[in-house]
Design brief:
By secondary structure, the chain is mainly alpha-helical. The protein has one domain (about 10-45). About 65% of the residues lie in helices and about 0% in strands. It is globular, with a radius of gyration of 10 Å.
Length: about 45
């Protein structure tokens, strides 16, 4: 993985939020100020 502006802990907690939430991934990405495609990629990698 290249150097990221997001820590591993932030990525992991964001993925868990998507998995355990009834909110859409798009809404969570907006709330976290993360690009929607980035969050989808993190979930896919998980």
């Amino acid at each position: 993985m290249r150097n990221s502006k997001y820590t591993r802990e932030f990525r992991d907690s964001s993925v868990q939020l998507v998995i355990n939430s009834d909110e859409s991934t798009a809404k969570i990405a907006k709330d976290l100020d993360v690009n929607e495609k980035t969050l989808y990629n993190w979930v896919r990698e998980y």
